[in-house]
Structure formats: structure tokens, C-alpha cells
Design brief:
binds 2-phosphoglycolic acid
Length: 253
């Protein structure tokens, strides 16, 4: 059985004070959600401090991006090894905001995924269509292309342990969530794509849903067979919301 995973992507929000309040607000309650994986993804500069506060809570730590390079003259970049060194277990790769605002291509996303594995991190790779693509009926083809890029030049087994996040771009930060049926359609398709490459990868890979997940809709999304958790943006900045989403995840188990 795939373990439910609830991930909080804080994006570029917070400061030392508000982050301390947020962690005080949910850490104890979330630690009481046994049997699921929970992790938060602060901005780079807060990663070490958040890691210290999370010690002993069972809540995991991740970053929002990494360089595809291992080290060197890449001003402003952060390597996977640095993230490991600062206590990260996870890293988000290919978030739609990176793809859109920083022109991250499928090939770069795939390179970052490989760099994450090379550093001993679990990549949480985001895929998803924009509204025009959904309206044009190309959602599955878009996601197929994004997933296929991850397999370029690597053995399927080397992706064991990857976490995927289906995030329809039109649902991110808009309050417009995909219906559970819309999510399941894509999740089921993605699982089929993985299984076609490697049966164990298909059966074992966790596929999270992301896009306006809240305490109100999490349980319905988690009820879908191929939705293994959530990548939560806005609601992860509210202690009560995030704790409630984690509780819904614990009930799904
Ligand atoms: P949202 O963001 O929950 O605020 O829609 C999700 C994400 O971008 O990961």
C-alpha cells in the first residue's frame, strides 16, 4: 500500500516570526497523524531553522527547487548536496511556477530530478496542464510528455522512490480545484504510464494532487484510488488548515 504523503509548499512566504508561529500551530497536531508522511518546503534561507524546529516531530523537510548542477560557478543556485547537508529529504522539481516564470523545460526538470536522486533527495516532480490545454482536450497528452521526459536516458528503475504531483495549473492558487473525478482521470493515466515502463514503479509511485487543496476538499480527493496525498500551497500557511488536511490523509490510510 502506498503511504499517504501531505506536502506543504510555502512558496515565497513567511518570515522567521510567522514561520515559528505556523510550526507551533501545527507541528504537535501533525505529529499525531500517524502512518502518513508529512513534509514542509520552506524558502531556501529558512530551511536550516525549520529543520531545527522540526527535530523530533517526524515531519519531513524539503526545498522548493535545486540546481541541476552539482557545484561550481552558478551564482544564486543551490545544489542537492547543499540541501542534504542542511537536513532536507525532499525537493520539489518542475513546479509550474518554475516552468513558467523561469522557463524550465521538460529536459531541465528531468535533469533536476536526476540531480535530486544523485544527492540522495526524494524529488517531488510536478506535472500538469494549463487551462488552454485542458480546454483543447490535450491534458493527458501534456502530462504524458512531461512524464516521458523523466525517463529520457535513464533506466526506469532509477526513478524508484520518485514522488509525482499532478497540479493542473488552472487550479493553483485560484480556489478552483479539479474535481475528484478530474484528478483521478489524470492520476490513473499517469500510473498507467509508469506501469508501462516498470510494473513496480506503477504500483509503488505516490502521485499527489495539488491545486487549491483545502481542509474542505482534501477528503474527497483522497478518496480517489490513485490520489496518494496532496501538495498544498496556500492552505499549508494556515496551521488549522494544514493540520486538518493531514488528518484527512491519516483517515485515508
Ligand atoms: P495552492 O498551490 O494550494 O495554493 O493552489 C499548490 C501548489 O502550487 O503546489
Amino acid at each position: 500500500m502506498r503511504k499517504v504523503f501531505v506536502a506543504g509548499n510555502w512558496k515565497m512566504n513567511g518570515d522567521r516570526q510567522s514561520i515559528a508561529r505556523l510550526l507551533d500551530g501545527f507541528a504537535a497536531r501533525v505529529a499525531a497523524s500517524p502512518g502518513i508522511d508529512v513534509a514542509v518546503f520552506p524558502p531556501f534561507v529558512y530551511v536550516p531553522a525549520v529543520g531545527e524546529r522540526l527535530a523530533g516531530t517526524g515531519i519531513g523537510l524539503g526545498a522548493q527547487d535545486l540546481s541541476e548542477q552539482a557545484s561550481g560557478a552558478f551564482t544564486g543556485e543551490v545544489s542537492g548536496a547543499m540541501l542534504r547537508d542542511c537536513g532536507c529529504q525532499y525537493v520539489i522539481v518542475g513546479h509550474s511556477e518554475r516552468r513558467r516564470l523561469h522557463d524550465e523545460s521538460d529536459a531541465i526538470v528531468a535533469a533536476k530530478c536526476r540531480a535530486a536522486f544523485a544527492a540522495g533527495l526524494t524529488p517531488v516532480v510536478c506535472v500538469g496542464e494549463i487551462l488552454e490545454e485542458r480546454d483543447a482536450g490535450t491534458t493527458l497528452a501534456v502530462v504524458e510528455r512531461q512524464v516521458a521526459a523523466l525517463f529520457d536516458g535513464v533506466a526506469p528503475s532509477s526513478l524508484a522512490g520518485v514522488v509525482l504531483a499532478y497540479e493542473p495549473v488552472w487550479a493553483i492558487g485560484t480556489g478552483r480545484t479539479a474535481t475528484p473525478a478530474q484528478a483521478q482521470e489524470v492520476h490513473g493515466h499517469v500510473r498507467g504510464l509508469l506501469a508501462a515502463r516498470d510494473a513496480a514503479l506503477g504500483a509503488g509511485t505516490r502521485i499527489l494532487y495539488g491545486g487549491s487543496v483545502t481542509a474542505d476538499n482534501a477528503a474527497d480527493l483522497f478518496a480517489m484510488a490513485d490520489v496518494d496525498g496532496a501538495l498544498v500551497g496556500g492552505a499549508s500557511l494556515k496551521a488549522d488548515q494544514f493540520a486538518a488536511i493531514c488528518a484527512a490523509g491519516a483517515r485515508r490510510r
